[in-house]
């Protein structure tokens, strides 16, 4: 069984997309393609591919999305391919449908970056840009040190000292939260939320409005990686109140809720400004929406953060073709998609459970 599961997964965007399109062709499933007109690695076509299984009139809809953060595509893509290969949705009830969104951030996936072609973190891009954008004063305090152009030397030493002092003062949770929660001031900074809706943002809104406008109950699950215990798929929910209560009744009380005041003391969690959940709710105002992120853990938080910081430096100041550049890219890949069949097996098993819970919640809620 292990080798069968392995066959679902790919090591890069091009192969992941080919596997997804191939299984759709084999199963005679129509694919709607949204092409992003920017150059990808090796000039490959960059696209978000969408399929639907079930009636357009279905009252209940499950949406499964991969590649919101580009470097995290491969784990979610493998689960999507496997579900199709195993005909997991061949006996859906007539009032239930499935939508799969493959590689929402294709440029990031092709280039092994978390962010998109404009250095925008899509999970920080779903604020309402008609309103004043939020400030992140904590991030502003350390932006210069985080994005220091020097790799070594006195300037780098001074930057590292600033970061160490900030971490000591604010604690690990405050340090990670400052970096990862989202900011809208520094275009070349970490966790940049953008100045307007990105191509991927607009594409997601169009997909959700097209496929969700007739559904009354909608569950959305985004596949991510790089947070939590190794090989475990932790569920993270950005809801509050009754929506959070409903999500916990479907998926279990261990579901993590960063926006819940009772959980914000956990240093492993941080609120996210402009999370995709905000966009989902705006796109689907007439539906009851239950949204969750499945986060597959890899290595420890410090190692994963180091990979993100190094990749950020490489994108703006380094040379990806150099030996150092190749080393940084390998680290980025490994911290989001470990070269470990057992990790992928765990990813697959947890995905089966979460999808089963989502369908049960939709059909029995």
Task: Describe, in plain words, how this protein is organized in 3D.
- By secondary structure, the chain is an alpha/beta fold.
- The protein folds into 2 domains: 2-132 and 189-298 and 336-364, Zn peptidases (Aminopeptidase, 3-Layer(aba) Sandwich); 137-180, no CATH class.
- The protein has 12 helices and 7 strands.
- Strands 1-2-4-3-5-7-6 form a 7-stranded mixed beta sheet, with helices on both faces.
- Helix 3 (73-85) links the parallel strand 3 and strand 4.
- Helix 2 (13-26) runs parallel beside helix 3 (73-85), helix 5 packs antiparallel against helix 6 and helix 7 packs parallel to helix 9 (276-283).
- The longest helix has 27 residues, at 154-180.
- It is globular.
Task: Summarize this entry quickly.
Helix content is 44%, strand content 15%. It has twelve helices and seven strands.
How do the helices and strands line up, and which of them pair or pack?
Blueprint: H1 2-6, H2 13-26, E1 32-36, E2 46-53, E3 60-66, H3 73-85, E4 96-102, H4 106-110, H5 137-146, H6 154-180, H7 199-212, E5 217-230, E6 233-236, H8 241-251, H9 276-283, E7 288-297, H10 301-317, H11 323-334, H12 341-364
Helix pairs in contact: 2-3, 3-12, 5-6, 7-9, 10-11
Q: What share of the residues does DSSP label as strand, in percent?
A: 15-25%
Note the gap between the termini. 33 Å
CATH architecture of the largest domain: 3-Layer(aba) Sandwich
Give the count of structural domains: 2
Mean pLDDT: 94
Which regions are unreliable across 5 or more consecutive residues at pLDDT < 50?
none
Give the CATH superfamily of the largest domain. Answer: Zn peptidases
Please work out how many helical segments DSSP would assign.
12
> SSE string, helix = H, strand = E?
HHEEEHEHHHHEEHHEHHH
In CATH, what is the class of the largest domain?
A: Alpha Beta
CATH fold field value of the largest domain:
Aminopeptidase
Helix content: 40-55%
Question: Can you summarize the main beta sheet?
Answer: 7 strands, mixed
């Amino acid at each position: 069984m292990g080798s069968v599961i392995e066959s679902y997964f790919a090591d890069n965007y091009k192969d992941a997309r080919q596997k997804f399109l191939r299984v759709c062709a084999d199963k005679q499933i129509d694919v709607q393609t949204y092409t992003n007109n920017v150059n990808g690695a090796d000039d490959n076509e960059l696209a978000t591919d969408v399929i639907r299984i079930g009636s357009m009139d279905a009252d209940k809809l499950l949406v499964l999305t991969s590649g919101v953060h580009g470097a995290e595509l491969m784990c979610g893509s493998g689960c999507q391919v496997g579900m199709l290969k195993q005909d997991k949705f061949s006996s859906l009830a007539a009032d239930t449908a499935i939508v799969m969104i493959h590689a929402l951030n294709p440029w990031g996936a092709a280039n092994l970056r978390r962010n998109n072609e404009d250095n925008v973190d899509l999970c920080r891009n779903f604020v309402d840009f008609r309103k004043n954008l939020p400030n992140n004063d904590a991030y502003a305090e350390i932006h210069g040190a985080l994005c220091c152009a020097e790799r070594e030397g006195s300037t780098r030493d001074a930057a590292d000292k600033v970061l160490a002092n900030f971490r000591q003062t604010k604690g690990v949770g405050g340090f990670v939260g400052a970096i990862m929660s989202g900011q809208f001031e520094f275009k070349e900074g970490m966790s940049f939320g953008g100045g307007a809706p990105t191509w991927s943002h607009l594409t997601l809104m169009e997909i959700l409005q097209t496929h969700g406008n007739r559904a009354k109950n909608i569950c959305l699950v985004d596949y991510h990686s790089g947070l939590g215990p190794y090989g475990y798929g932790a569920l993270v929910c950005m809801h509050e109140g009754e929506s959070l209560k409903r999500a916990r009744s479907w998926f279990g009380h261990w579901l993590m809720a960063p926006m819940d005041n009772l959980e914000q003391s956990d240093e492993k969690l941080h609120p996210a400004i402009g999370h995709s959940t905000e966009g989902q709710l705006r796109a689907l105002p007439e539906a009851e929406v239950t949204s969750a992120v499945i986060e597959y853990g890899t290595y420890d938080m410090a190692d994963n953060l180091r990979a993100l910081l190094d990749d950020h430096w490489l994108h703006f100041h380094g040379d990806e073709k150099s030996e150092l550049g190749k080393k940084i890219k390998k680290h980025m890949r490994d911290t989001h998609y470990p070269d470990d069949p057992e990790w992928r097996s765990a990813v697959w098993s947890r995905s089966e459970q979460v999808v089963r819970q989502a369908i049960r919640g939709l059909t029995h809620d």
